[in-house]
Every structure is written in structure tokens, then in C-alpha cells.
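Q: Two folds, back to back.
A: First:
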Amino acid sequence: MSSIESELIAGTSLASPQASRRRFVRETTGAPLALPNAQSDLLLRWIKPNQVRRKWTTLLADAGSQHLETALKLADWLLRHGWSVQYEKRAGSRWNVTWLEFPQLTALRELFKLPNPDQLSNDWANASRHHFATTDIATAHAALAEQPLSRRLQRFNLLKSLALWLDKNRQGTRRDFALLARGDSKGITTAEWNWLAAAVDLEKSGIFEHTPHLLIAGPIRLHTATGIIDLNASADWSALTPETIATAQRCDGQPRAWRLIENLTSFERSARQRTPDMAVVWLPGFPPSWWQECMRHLLIAAPAPAEIACDPDPAGIAIALQAAKVWEAAHLPWQPFAMHRDNLLAAPQRKPLTEHDRQQLAQLLSTTLPPALYQLAATLLELGEKAEQESYL
């Protein structure tokens, strides 16, 4: 290992209060591949295509406060073995690192078998010409051009995996999707999940943070391969996975009606106070595909009309109409429940409509609505206010 040399960059001498220097060794020694895993993983994040110089504060931020010691040890090793040059500025009696330079960047990339920048550019040229049939995915693909090159390609591959997931009509947790996309159930970072969630509706794509559950109570017994699930045995409600419902062999019981309730607190109250002949189900906002599929299975075994209770607001009307499609497809009647004009007027608290609410109302009123929902929509527009069912149901 060669000795560290210093070279003055600015100032009259190394002792000058305004002095800047670069520190380096003349020969490269040691293999970064032999570094401890934490340091090796961090170095991989520090190496960027065509970025020979990296700001030290940026590198520290990449390491995070919990891995400060790892970053300091890695920087010292890189300097002493000639893999980096440190640029420092004097601050009183101390020298503060300002930049790290990687004079052997190409060799580092080859050691870690990282693609060279030209290959990355060629890969992106091919990726940018890819056509996605789904509008949201195509929009996210087009926006990748604003990202750094290596990130573009990583996220492009996630979009390809998402398109494959949709083509196969897959449903599962985020870990299931990560396993498909990266071969590792924890292989997608938090930043990548946040980006995906902003780009597409993950739940509508069949990707859930955890296994979804249908919250349900009522006079129904599900017969499975291993036993009977009596939904009326619970004092409040039961939580069933879509797989449980889909694989049930048969179903006993006939509710007078299925009451769907959007607000979770209202659902919990209603489930506890239900009459013996009433089936009560939580409607989790705009019903995702797994919820609709669960209800299709249950309606085949226990057909009954629906009473749909959503917030007396524009979104609530749209949610009720979407949930009702499951009953319409089964040729069963449905009606709004606790979302009439009088419920809105009697609500103890109301909030002003937003501009988005008004646009949604205009769209709803341009269609043919059931009389009760038309009256509610017209009253919302007239009042300029909306409410939440939790305040009265």
C-alpha cells in the first residue's frame, strides 16, 4: 500500500486558512470486491456511469445516517488503495472532504461487472421504442426519459413486469410482484414502490400491500375442503381472503339483502347491529377487482338484492354505481341506502365541494342516474356541500 500524498490546489500553503488540497496515492492496490458486504454494497451505489467526481455530501446522504461509519471506512479504504482521490478544504484546524474522484472508474465498473455507459445508452434506445398497450404504463414509460439512465432501465424493466402481471391476470401482494419482477420478494425498493404507486393504481392492477380481506357478516355458511365457516357465529364480522371464497365448495344461507357500506366505521357499527337476515359487507371505496370477484362468487350461492350505502358526495355516487354493476351483471336489483337527499341535509357536518367534486358531479348528471342518486347529485350541486356517512350511519 503506497503512502498518501497531498497536493495544494488553492491557498498560499497547506497551512493557509483558505487552503484546498487533493490527497491520493500513486498506485492502485487491493480489490474492492474483497470489501465487507456493507462497504461493497455502498460502493456499488456510489459508482455512477460517467461520473468520475462525486460530491461527498451526496455520497454521505446515499449511505444514510445509520451507515455513516461504513461510509467513512469505505472512503478511507478507497483513498489508501488508490481507488479514489479526496478533495478537501481547510476549516480552522480541520480538513473537510468535499469531493471524491474515481480515477479508475472504468476498472471499478468492470470489477463489479456493471454495464458500460455505451451499453446502457444502447439498451435505453431499444427500451424507449417499446410499446405498452396500457395507458398508465405507457405514460409512465414516456416519463422515464427524465430519469438518470441506469434508473430508466431499472424502472422500464419494472413496467415490463407489470405488463406481464396484467397479461396473466395475476393478483397478489407486493412481495408476489417483486418475486416476479426481480426474483426476490424484497427486491423492489421503497422509492420504486412509491414511483409505481404514483404511476399506476396498484390495487386495480391486482397488487396489494398485504393479502386483501373481504369484511363480511351475515347468515351464510361457507363449506370448504377442511370445514365450515359460519359468518353468523361472529358477534361483529369475519375477514375472508379471496382465495377462501373462491375455493369454497358450496354456500348455505339466504340473506334478505346484501348491505354494502363504504365507511369502515359505519360498516363496523352496522355489522354489530345487523338483523339476523341481513348480510353486511365493507365496500372499500371504488371496488377493486378482487372485491368484485368475491361478491360474484357469493351472489351465485346466495343471490339477494343490494342496499348500497356510500358517502353522500360525488365520489360516493360513483362508487355506488360501480359496485351496483356486480348486481346488474347477476340480474339482481339494487338501491341506494342512507345516501338520499335527506341524509345529506340532515348530516351534522358538511364540507364545501372542491373543483374536482363539481367536475365529477357534472359528469354524473350528464348520465342517467337512479332517481334517488339524481336527487342527491342535484342537491349537492345546489348546496355546494358534501358529507360523510360516518356522521349519521
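A: Second:
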Amino acid sequence: MKTKTKNQKSKLNGVFFVTIVILLFLSTVAKAQEQDSMKTLFRPGTTVSELWTPEIKINSIQGNIGTLVGIYGGVLINQSFLAGISGGVNLGHPSVNYGYLGGIGQYIFKPDNIVHFSSQLVIGYGTTKDYENPKSNLFDNFWNISGAVFFFMEPGINLELNLSERLTLVTGISYRYVAGLNELDENVSITHLTSGDMRGINFNIGLKIGKKPFEKHL
């Protein structure tokens, strides 16, 4: 009974975190649209550039700490709104091997400031497959993840530091909400992995690499 109550509290905390971050993301976008100094997507002078961010995520699954290597990026509009793709593959978790692919929307608040914030939302799907043998090194079974399918939504907030005009250090926290994982799937017969096991907080660090923007007249 205590375990069930604890799981319910954890789930409620996760839903609360997801709701708060989504509301923050939507409110910052709306506020930016109201500012005269911020150009919208449909006005002349809109700038468009390309941005890619390799990152490392740290999380806990089934009580074990693991790392995931990933990348996200796409089109950056007015140096403030990013729309693109996001993906990652397990690197250091000792028992759960998984990967994901999805879409990302990110809003960067006051990007010209040396230190600033951003909020984001990633939605996509992933797959997981048990190790056939114990993991012996970081790259063991690196791409062998095609198995049980799950769907996820991961809102997050970041603290960013401009290193140069085209390089930005970013660290952040996100909450991954997972659904649809079949724990009876033969691909997870060893770990008996569930959607609840995959849910939780992620800490990330990455380096944004951007190209010089160009002006697009709409």
C-alpha cells in the first residue's frame, strides 16, 4: 500500500511539473509576440538560421543512474523560436537500453543576454530492448534498441550561457512522461520495464552550435 501511494504521489508530481513547464512555455511565447521589439513570423525582417545541439542527459531508471547521448536542432526563427527534431540513444545505463526520436519546440527568452533562459517541449516515440548479455563498455549494444515501443512527452527548462555569437552552453532539467510501453513484450522480459519506470526527471548539458542568421522577407 505504501509503495502504491508513493507511486501515485510521484506520478502527481510529474504531471504537476509537466503542466507548469508547458504553461511557462506558452506564456513566454505569448509575451514575446506582444513586445514591439520582437518581430513575429509574419513581418518583414524575420531572421532564419540553423541550430544544432549535441547533449548528454543523466537520469534514473529502475534505481540505476544512466546517461544518454543525443542531439536536437532545426530552424531558428528570430533567434528565439526553434522548431525541429530531437533524438537520443542510451550510453551508460547498465540494464536498460533504449532510444527515442521526436519533434522539439523551444522558446529562448532574451537570447542576446549573456545568461538567459529557454523552455522547450519534446514529443515523440522510443524503443527499448534488453541486453542479451551484461553491458561490458559504453558502446556495447549501442544501436541494438529496436524492441518494445513507447510514446513520450518531455517538457523542460534550461539555463543558457553565450560563449560566442555561435556557441551557447546550455544546462537544464526536464520531466519525461511515458505511456504505451507493454511490459509483457518479449523484448523486455529480463528487465520487465514499464512506462512508470521510464518516467522521471532528466538533467542535461549541451552545446548549441548555430549558423549566422539571414533575413527572410515574408
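Q: And?
A: Helices lie at 2-34, 195-198.
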